[in-house]
Amino acid sequence: MSPRTMFDKIWDAHVVRDEPGEVPVIYIDRHLTHEATSPQAFAGLRARNLPVHRTDATIAVIDHNVPTVLGRRMIDVVDAASVKCIETMEENARDFGVTLFDMKDEYQGIVHVVGPELGISLPGMTVVCGDSHTSTHGALGIFAIGIGTSEVEHVMATQCLQQQKPKTMNIRVEGTLSPGVTAKDVALAIIRKFGTNVGSNHVIEFSGSAIRSLSVEGRMTLCNMAIEAGARAGMVAPDEVTIEYVKGRPYAPEGDLFELAAANWRELASDPGAHFDAVLDINVDDLVPQVTWGTDPGMVADITGVVPDPADESDVVTRQAYERALEYMGLTPGQKIEDIEIQTVFIGSCTNSRIEDLRMAASYVVGKQVAPNVRALVVPGSMLVSRQAEEEGLADIFRAAGFQWREAGCSMCIAMNGDRLAPGERCASTSNRNFEGRQGRGGRTHLVSPLMAAAAAVAGHFVDARNL
Amino acid sequence: MEKFVTHLGVAAPLARSNVNTDDIVPARFLKTIRRTGFADALFANWRYINDDKAPNPDFELNQSAYADATILVAGPNFGCGSSREHAPWALREFGFRCIIAPSFADIFYNNCFNSSILPVVLDKSTVEDIQATLAGQEQYKLQIDLPAQTVAMPDGRTFGFDLDPFKKSALLEGLDSVDWTLSRKGEILAYEERRRKEAPWLFIGKDADRRSASAPAS
Ligand code: SF4
Q1: Quick one: which of A22, A154, A226, A310 is 20 to 30 A from A386 by CA?
Q2: Domain boundaries, given as residue ranges, for chain B
Q3: Does the pLDDT of residue A353 top 60, yes or no?
Q4: What pLDDT, on a 0 to 100 scale, did the predictor assign at position B217?
């Protein structure tokens, strides 16, 4: 057999039907779902009088609409519409026999934190969720894709997806990250360099020495942002670090079955000489912390840099986009990034809310205080992360410094649960989207790493995390 | 599903790049368990000056020339961001049947077909040309012909576009994809049986209650 990429191997193992003139049908190993994009799909199943084909492979969480206040109860849910979404999820899970991690569950959390952390998502799998950041799971060597609600219904009914085979792209990330520079900065640098739709119709495999030395959680941050580069999915080949990460997780295989699985996972990496449809290179030796200044995740500057001048852009569409972005963001060309003052800091989201992210932020915050007039939130990605952070004393560090310590959920990443920015409010956020209105209508989002967010919380403006 | 064969309709330009699904339907409108009721949510942050829905006179689609538009002529990477199918639902409910752009985000592109919207990719210069031609024109209509895979302008210019043949026939026939796949259920079961032997760890699922098994720290 000719050499194959990791993606090819996983794809080949999951083709149920591939006939000329048809779209291939691929099998889905795990389906994760949440209350925001599933109600219409369950309603569709009811209308068809169909069950969920594999309830043992379908897991639901409540994350988008949950309040994050400590000791939350139904009465804390932001509005009646959110209550309805949550109750509908509970009802659907009960009626269809799907496991649900609801608001009070010790396993509750953001769907893309929960899947890998519990060992529900495993290397070599196909994983889908009605959520674009499903790409996160690819960090374990999974073909993981976001799907629409009609496809959610399709997968629940058939355990399959109709899917045209995407192309493959290898982004080789070489070099050594300086202290204070993180996976988040790598993700932003990649989108900045190659654009917000470089990955269109491609599955990106991230490879190279810089990726090998990232932890699994760092790889998740990177794959999470693959969707912001327009990719169908992001992936990192499983290695011993991955296998060690998976071992012992609550839903992971055990004993001989684990060894059998691990032997299979060791074969997944792309073969030497495997063909990719596109290959891109980036070196991160000199990478500095990155900060977005605009309203798409490709609008990025170095912390040492300035807000760009739209007049320097030759392309009309780009120039107009820059002008709109600067107007929305309330920034002026030439302004130093370090001089941008923030009112809010959000450490959370499926991009950067895992234990390592919280450790990274806490390591800087310890013994310091959040700047006066800055509102700072830490929202752990899951209740397990929260518990661990409490045990490690991280929660105490944040609280002592003046951060609000919250319960797990999407929170201010999506602003549909009560946590949001006011119009004009400026935020250093560890989330993944700086779109207009994403964190609240009129809110101004700057995407940064957890370390950069922590430093901004203390200083009240952006500072270079390398100099801390 | 609603079919799409040919369509003659008023076109409206939206010459912005990277229009994302949060722009198309802001997240606060996702709090519903229904598939309908999104027409007012479409482009809400741009369309209205405030939450009282006072129209923003500067927004392209609020201009009288494009009232009744059913074809949107958009910029590159249209529909990027979230996977929310609410975005094409809202576009469809508002009246759009076809979106023309130089490129689409993948998930949005797929979702369009499940919402009976035809996404048409034309090259960037052609799209910009159409946008410039129809800018400010009253009731400027384009003719979309799916069987022929063409977009025709009133001045006679016609542009061909590519489309996956399977997706094309699904739209032409209004095919239900769940029914289609379910009719191959035998193949799905056979696959599962084979995989159960090949890769048994994929099937242990969550038979036992695994709560309180402590997840290890990383
Ligand atoms: S944290 Fe944000 S990006 Fe992640 S799943 Fe929740 S809303 Fe989506």
Answers
A1: A226
A2: 6-174, 184-214
A3: yes
A4: 44
